[in-house]
Write a structure and sequence with these properties.
The chain contains 21 helices and 34 strands. The protein is an alpha+beta fold and 762 residues long. It has an 8-stranded mixed β-sheet. It has a 6-stranded mixed β-sheet with strand order 2-4-5-6-7-3, with no helix packed on it. A 5-stranded antiparallel β-sheet has the order 25-26-29-27-28. The N terminus is likely disordered.
Length: 762
């Protein structure tokens, strides 16, 4: 069998079973660790495999093709080592275990079973309308959610899903004839009229329900499909690549292979990807040139409809425009186009959904600024799974913090969540939301630790840096890590901290530190940490502990581009809530005090520290309580007047904003104002990140893949005669002095201003 022809029947295309293996040991370590030559050989095969299949090719399906030997000449998996009797059985309308994309299944019928590969899946929530209208709470809802703000309780982790099986994946010998398939679709007993299977999927635990596609498929292969994964008849066995069969080795190698396949698909110039699905550019071009149903004209019309879904009528001239939010599901809307029914049968549905999402994404990329269009609408992807994808159209846009419009945000669901209970009273708060549908967050829930990985090899978690950590030089350990270290080393041990700051070179005493791990009943933490000078409250840290070691590795994650937030240039991922609360005036690594602050800084500090807090860092304070909240008592009349004057200046300079809320019978403020409650004025602080580099297109990159830019340190600049520095620049200079350890001379010299640290394009 030729390595370049084989049974694939395509000259120049490698064969999984050919002389040269398409999967190598290096690939088990991930895409970045794979040599370019090995990548190129795998790319040649996967590019041909995507072109040969009618459905978009998911990363898991691409892995199946190369691992189990998909024949491109027409036989598919017909000659593969797969044991058909081992496939899980699914029934239309029945219950099923989690079946990720890539799973090989048997569709039960009244006669001969149907063997298929799941090539696409999506949510099939019953409350999504036939016209694509989606209730807000459904968009981004967790598995088992029972209604607005009502997550699953107990063991009710069930979700209705639509599975698209490729009924021709096993070649002509195991495929139905068109007449047989038509008969099954007409009866609607085993597959529905479109040739799809709708099932109620039960998840064993919340973690399983939240798994990403590749992790879910790895779990499936290591459990349900373990025998086929370890088959000695596959082109290259995972056990051979890893040199062992322990669960830890297999999982690590499998995830590495999946990452390599994902990276190769994403690097192919002839392909485009939507999430984990890959399609050829040639097929997209053919679709855009098609004048028939679901062709270029229909896709342009669909993208335009999503863009204008929330835009108010031009005829409305009187009165204010209330915010409007519309959620549109891709799958149901595609069915409304004349002549689309037949094109959405079988795997054609998956292809149409991916093309539609790519069409909308291209419009967002090309015609908007991070999803914000000239007509004032903000278009973002809100849910990538439900009903083919749910897009959120919001008017007016630009009221919230900028974000990646193509990253599923789930704002529909979060807009219905109640506020967490008050830590002092224990009373549940109502669902107070701001104009961008984000729920209020209580300070008790600031900076939670998020577990990212917990397996036989390591524990990885993520948590934001807090002001107390900076001031006192400590950081909490994850309970899992603390428990295991306490069991093996006792309540106190010397640990080693390795700290990496992406894009920055740390001094030796910061990059590698000997610290103390205190593992008591009330406190599990690392102490004696020397934090780098440019670390700030809210900076997200990712921590990694390898089992059996005493080394803790800490790393930051760079943002795609640096941001200006207030007077700070931020180049790494951060928690906006912690930044708002703990980076307020008077707070730095040397302490936290309002002593010596002027009226403007006192107002800003009070609003940020005492206001109702949202997930995007927006803080809103009852204006009437500002004096007492600032001074902790009823202030003198002159102090109150100074605060009011400062408020007026800050609002005029748009550093603060005014709003209207209401107060309930218990004296609790709410925003927006509620009917039947006393209306009250509010003061709002909204951190609006500003980009240093334009977000879309044309940004020059250096060899590292990061924007080719230059970091400019904070410095003094001479002012023109008659000009004076702003209060913000005076405060920035004092903060600059504190960072340098200077105890005096905090005021700017006459005739100068301070330019804060920033990034400048080369």
């Amino acid at each position: 069998m030729s390595a370049m022809v084989g049974d694939n029947g395509r000259t120049g295309v490698p064969d999984p079973y050919g002389e040269q293996a398409l999967l190598t040991p290096a690939m088990t370590k991930g895409y970045d660790a794979t040599p370019s030559r090995e990548r190129h050989l795998l790319l040649s095969y996967l590019e041909a495999a995507v072109a040969a299949r009618r459905a978009p090719v998911h990363t898991a399906v691409a892995f199946n093709a190369v691992y189990f030997g998909y024949n491109l000449g027409g036989d598919g998996y017909g000659g593969s080592p797969l044991r058909l009797d081992d496939f899980p059985v699914i029934t239309l309308g029945g219950c099923a275990p989690p079946l990720p994309v890539g799973a090989m299944v048997c569709v039960a019928t009244g006669s001969d079973p149907l063997y298929a590969e799941i090539v696409y899946r999506e949510g099939a929530h019953p409350e999504v309308g036939t016209l694509g209208d989606v209730p807000a709470w459904v968009s981004g809802a967790p598995v088992g959610a029972a209604g607005p703000g009502r997550p699953a309780t107990g063991a009710a982790l069930r979700r209705r899903e639509l599975l698209v099986p490729d009924l021709h994946a096993f070649g002509p010998a195991l495929s139905l004839s068109p007449a047989q398939l038509h008969r099954l679709r007409t009866r609607r007993r085993w597959i529905n009229e479109d040739g799809h299977v709708v099932v109620d999927v039960s998840y064993p635990c919340p973690e399983a329900a939240r798994c990403d596609d590749l992790t879910a498929y790895a779990d499936h292969l290591l459990t349900t499909a373990r025998d086929q994964l370890l088959s000695p008849f596959v082109p290259v066995s995972l056990a051979e690549l890893m040199g062992g069969t322990s669960d830890g080795e297999l999982r690590t190698g499998l995830l590495g292979l999946l990452d390599t396949v994902r990276g190769v698909l994403g690097s192919c110039a002839a392909l485009r990807t939507w999430g984990h699905y890959a399609v050829t550019r040639a097929s997209l071009a053919e679709c855009w040139g098609d004048t028939g149903p679901l062709g270029g004209g229909d896709l342009r019309s669909f993208a335009g409809a999503v863009g204008h879904a929330a835009t108010p009528s031009r005829q409305r001239r009187h009165g204010g425009l209330a915010p409007v939010t519309v959620y549109t599901a891709v799958g149901p809307r595609l069915r409304q186009f004349p002549g689309a029914t037949e094109l959405l049968r079988g795997v054609g549905y998956a292809a149409a959904v991916c093309r539609a999402n790519l069409a909308i994404a291209d419009v967002v990329r090309g015609d908007s600024n991070q999803g914000l269009f000239e007509n004032g609408s903000l278009i973002t992807l809100d849910d990538a799974f439900e009903s083919g994808g749910v897009w959120r159209s919001h008017y007016p846009g630009g009221t919230g913090a900028p974000c990646d419009p193509l990253a599923p945000a789930g704002r529909g669901w979060t807009s219905t969540l109640p506020a967490p209970p008050d830590p002092e009273t224990g009373r549940d708060a109502e669902a107070d939301v701001d104009p961008v549908d984000l729920p209020l967050a209580d300070d008790a829930f600031l900076g939670p630790s998020e577990l990212l990985r917990n397996d036989a090899k390591e524990i990885t978690w993520r948590s934001p840096l807090r002001l107390a950590h900076l001031v006192d030089g400590w950081f909490p350990l994850h309970p899992h890590v603390a428990r295991e270290l306490r069991w093996s080393h006792g309540p106190r041990l010397t640990s080693h901290l390795e700290l990496g700051h992406a894009g920055r070179i740390l001094v030796e005493r910061e990059a590698a530190q000997d610290v103390m791990a205190e593992l008591g009943d009330e406190s599990d933490r690392l102490t004696g940490i020397h934090w780098p000078r440019d670390f700030f409250p809210g900076l997200m840290l990712e921590l990694r502990w390898l089992r059996g070691e005493t080394v803790i590795r800490v790393a930051t994650t760079p943002l795609p581009e640096p941001l200006y937030v207030s007077d700070r240039v931020i180049g790494h991922c951060y928690d906006p809530r912690v930044l708002t609360r703990e980076d307020a005036p008077g707070s730095d690594r040397h302490g936290d005090s309002a002593a010596g602050l002027g009226p403007r800084q006192l107002v800003m500090r009070t609003v940020r520290r005492c206001g109702l807090l949202t997930l995007d860092g927006h803080a809103l304070l009852d204006r009437s309580v500002l004096p007492s909240a600032t001074y902790g008592r009823r202030p003198a009349r002159s102090q109150t007047a100074a605060l009011e004057s400062a408020v007026a200046e800050l609002i005029a300079e748009r550093l603060l904003e005014s709003a209207l809320g209401s107060r309930d019978v218990w004296g609790q403020p709410h925003y927006p104002a509620r009917d039947g409650q006393l209306t009250i004025p509010l003061i709002g602080y909204r951190p609006v990140p500003r980009r240093v580099i334009r977000p879309w297109g044309g940004t020059k990159l250096d060899g590292s893949g990061l924007p080719a830019s230059q970091l400019v340190a904070g410095h003094l600049r001479r002012l023109r005669p008659g000009c004076f520095p702003s209060e913000a620049q005076r405060a920035a200079f004092r903060e600059h002095c504190r960072r340098l350890g200077k105890a005096d001379g905090w005021e700017l010299p006459y005739g100068y201003t301070f330019v804060t640290e920033h990034t400048r394009g080369r």
